[in-house]
Amino acid sequence: MSENTFMGVARESIPWAPLIDYEKCDFCMECDEFCPHRVFERREGDVKLVVANPNNCVVFCRACSKTCGPDAITFPDKPQTIKLIKELRNAEGGAA
């Protein structure tokens, strides 16, 4: 699982996790089988896969999306996330 901080910022403050486009997802579960951090969870019913543990996702990792044939997994914008991390770090009194 992920550590509690990333670049000096609490992990739960960083909005980095996969987003699933259910119109594209064919529920092949390749992403879930690939990810060792238990970010995903399988469920019964129409939506068979969810991002149940977003804070387990390693910040800036996008490897699970590379396993997705229908390109149903996306991530937040990396430059915007970097900017946010810097802002949070500065707000907490850390170095830039």
Task: State mean pLDDT (0 to 100 scale).
Answer: 92
In the predicted model, the low-confidence regions spanning at least 5 consecutive residues are none
CATH architecture tag: 2-Layer Sandwich
Written as H for each helix and E for each strand, in order along the chain, the element string is EEEHEEHEH
Computed CA radius of gyration, to the nearest angstrom = 15 Å
Helix content: 10-25%
Please give the CATH class: Alpha Beta
Strand line-up of the largest beta sheet:
1-2
Count of spatially separate domains: 1
> Which structural class do you get from the secondary structure elements?
alpha+beta
Can you walk through the features of this model?
The chain is elongated. The protein has three helices and six strands; from the N terminus they run βββαββαβα. It has a single domain (5-87), classed as Alpha-Beta Plaits (2-Layer Sandwich). It has 96 residues and is α+β, with helices and mostly antiparallel strands.
Summary tags:
two-stranded antiparallel ribbon; 96 residues; Alpha-Beta Plaits; single chain; alpha+beta
